[in-house]
Amino acid sequence: MARPTTAVIDTGALRHNLAQVRGRAPGSRVMAVVKADGYGHGLERVARSLAGADAFGVAALSDAERLRAAGVSQPILLLSGFDEPSDIGRMRALHVDSAIHHASQLEMLEQADPGELIGCWLKIDTGMHRLGFAPEHAREAHARLSAIPGVVGEIRLLNHFASSDEFDDSPSHGRQTREQMRIFQDTVAGLPGERSLANSAAVLGWPDAHADWVRAGGALYGMSVVEGRTGADFGLQPAMTFATRLIAINHIRKGERVGYSATWECPEDMPIGVAAIGYGDGYPRAAPSGTPMLVNGRRAPLVGRVSMDLVTIDLRGVPEARVGDPVTLWGPELPVETIALAAGTIGYELTCSITRRVRFVER
Ligand SMILES: *Cc1c(COP(=O)(O)O)cnc(C)c1O
Predict the structure, then answer these.
(1) Is pLDDT at 113 greater than 90 in this prediction?
(2) Residue whose CA is closest, atom 6 of ligand 1?
(3) Are residues 154 and 74 in the same domain?
(4) Other CB atoms closer than 10 Å to residue 331's CB: what's the count?
(5) Which stretches make up the Alanine racemase C-terminal domain (predicted)?
(6) How far apart are CA 80 and CA 256, in angstroms?
(7) What digits encode the pLDDT tens for the residues 3-32?
(8) Does 101 contact ligand 1 (Cβ within 6 A)?
(9) What's the whole-model pTM score?
């Protein structure tokens, strides 16, 4: 029998979430961010489902190649830009725009064949301190970029928020985002070109930052982008259901211990379910005993260590469970955020970590 571990992708949920993002930012165009294989949902599948997006954002040129090969005709932005001169020709051939965040990229462009036309988005570091020109160097970078004959069209202007998941709902909240918005405005004042500031959290919580383009990732997959909230709290639908089946049910005696390192002890004689999923599939090993799963749609806790191929489940609350019954690790009825919280991470990391042996199914 094939391993029953599946990631079911709800393409209707992806479309629903794009409509939600549009509804929240009605004056903006939407760049669908599909880096990391569409946050683990499958790049081509996501692009096909989100064919209504105005542009796509990727982190790897190879992903842009895959999108073009799949027939995507919208603009594509390489979010961290090119990193060697040979990329420029490839990007030109693929009509892929580049973020320009560093002087090394300006030098490469100045030395490139002027026939190599490329669209550019100038990235300004307004306080995230990851990528981008410092505000005091941004206008000079803009002038240099404008003078390069190979730069096609108007230069667009980009900012990335560090903590837009803190909404502007109290004076103590959102200070950094307000500051980043102010620095961006001051830096780009008077420059031509479209502006883009907002990630998913800013789409949901910072309407003043919507500008010409929003760049949404997590929200499109129905994930929460705000701590303590789920995607559903914002009207989003989780697009992924991670599921498997029970392959054994064993009756274990009180005082016996379950799994590697014997971390969990049975408090009474009880049924222990074994499901075909483990960290080799992308279920987090850090998930502790007590992390919820759904067996036949009913909550049952993980017990013992997550191993490579298997997990063990306390079935006392699901006495009717039988071998072959479905087990859901996360999905619309069990938010990935809940599992992420238990495992000390975020939903994004979990969906990005699903491994190649998992079968992807579309619904
Ligand atoms: C990943 C990324 C986004 C999307 O972020 P979400 O929080 O998933 O919406 C937007 N802009 C840039 C530059 C990114 O790297």
Answers:
(1) no
(2) 217
(3) yes
(4) 19
(5) 239-363
(6) 52
(7) 999 999 999 999 999 999 999 999 999 999
(8) no
(9) 0.96
